Amino acid sequence: MGILGFKYGVEEYKPMGGLVGVVCALLMVMGVGAGGGLVWRVMGWAHWEWWVMGVAGVGVLGIWVLMWWGVRVYENVRGLGAKRLFFDGDWLIWTWLLPGLNGVGLPLMVMEWWRGSVPNEGVSDGHAWRWSRWGRKVWCFGVMWWLTHFAGGCWMVSFVLDDGFSETLRGWSEYGLLVGLCGACLIGVVVVVDIEWRQRARFAAREAYLVAAKEKYGEVFERMG
What we know:
With 225 residues, this protein is mainly α. The chain contains 7 helices and no strands. The chain is 73% helix and 0% strand. The chain is elongated, with a radius of gyration of 21 Å. The chain crosses the membrane at residues 20-43, 50-71, 91-110, 138-160, 172-193.
């Protein structure tokens, strides 16, 4: 049992079913909301900040759903045979919660899950996933995610500056933050679905491999219990 009550290390594949739909719906709401805030900001309508704060509030409330999904994905990656994961143990939780680590490490953690779910490795020694290709979808998500945090940092710095450049920096930071958040959430929907399908494909490949192996080496499997 890890911190905050999350349980991990079971190493058993379990289809996530409706949880994937809930996560996708949450990301869609945030992505569309960020896009709406961007339009609001470009049009110069009043009180657009309240709209963005509402989107941020949805994200704060939804972080627990995303963390739950992340732990389940990790469990499935382990259950499907992947070993030597870098984001292991309590890192699964801190990577979501710590601001600096969240900004840098979250896309890398998702990339590790995506690669660990490589479907063409039905049964392996647990290390073959480390030589699998890097997903373009996840990289696109990472770029948008890093843009969001970079723009957010520039936005906070703009309040420290006391010159004419601060207003310009603040304006471009707001655009960058909204574009990055919108892109990260909408691309995130694709990544979440892709990881689910990759894990299902790997599970099916593993089951087919085991069935074929039992038919060919049935006596050996019976001796092994």
